Amino acid sequence: MEQLALFAEAGQSKGLPKHLLEYRPALLSATESDLLLTKLITETPWKQTTQKLWDKEFLTPRLTCWYGETNRIEGTLPWTPDLQAIRDLVEPLAGIHFNSVLLNYYRDGNDSVAWHSDKESIMGSQPVIASVSFGQVRSFDIRNKDDHKEHYSVKLEHGSFLLMKSGLQEQWQHRIAKSAKPMKARINLTFRQIL
Ligand SMILES: O=C(O)CCC(=O)C(=O)O
Ligand SMILES: [Fe+2]
């Protein structure tokens, strides 16, 4: 299997725990990424879901859509050729088969995902997740659940690949913070194995 670029070598935070995360810029070329960004924005039937917090419903601050062969998540659409092609690129890097992908559309700096772990029971307790990003560079922050002072950040570039390894979700949380700086559109794909 091809060796992934080390986090520090990619000009990002030094000392990122390599047993938890690996980052690789330019998995896809700038030209391919430009095309995919536009196609995914325009061709995806985006939805804005709601989240319950303190017994109140809030609009999720980003748009989402699920694709894949799982019938576990309501509204999952069948694979498209583009998503299948990206899945085929990331599977050998992750070393596992993915049967679904969650698309996130961050329209501007106001869109975000709050601190969380992806450890729903339908993914098992130690899921491996492959993440591909297009468009606006945004910071992906991680922090230790038990010690928030232990944290790292990686800028996810246009066409980049981030592997969240099996130990990450159990002990760490991640987020894409809102930004006061003007931000253009960003699409993120997280390939997952839904049980
Ligand atoms: O947008 C990202 O890079 C992360 C998305 C994420 O954490 C998720 O969908 O669970
Ligand atoms: Fe996540």
How does this structure look, described?
InterPro entries: AlkB-like, AlkB-like_sf, ALKBH3, Oxoglu/Fe-dep_dioxygenase_dom. This protein has 195 residues and is of the alpha+beta class. The chain has a single domain, classed as Alpha-ketoglutarate-dependent dioxygenase AlkB-like (Jelly Rolls), CATH 2.60.120. Helices cover 16% and strands 36% of the residues. It contains three helices and twelve strands; from the N terminus they run βαβββαββββββαββ. The chain has helices spanning 30-43, 81-94, 168-171; strands spanning 21-24, 50-53, 56-59, 63-68, 100-106, 113-116, 129-135, 138-144, 147-156, 160-164, 172-176, 186-192. The strands form three sheets. The protein has a six-stranded antiparallel β-sheet with strand order 1-10-7-12-5-4. The protein has a four-stranded antiparallel β-sheet with strand order 6-11-8-9. β2 and β3 form a beta hairpin. It is globular, with a radius of gyration of 16 Å. The relative contact order is 0.24. Residues 116, 118, 174 line the site of fe (ii) ion (FE2). The site of fe (ii) ion has 3 residues, from loops.
Summarize this entry quickly.
The protein is an alpha+beta fold and 195 residues long.
What descriptive keywords fit this protein?
dioxygenase; binds 2-oxoglutaric acid; Alkylated DNA repair dioxygenase AlkB; dioxygenase activity; Jelly Rolls; Oxoglu/Fe-dep_dioxygenase_dom; AlkB-like_sf; alpha+beta; disordered N terminus; six-stranded antiparallel β-sheet; 12 strands; 16% helix; binds fe (ii) ion
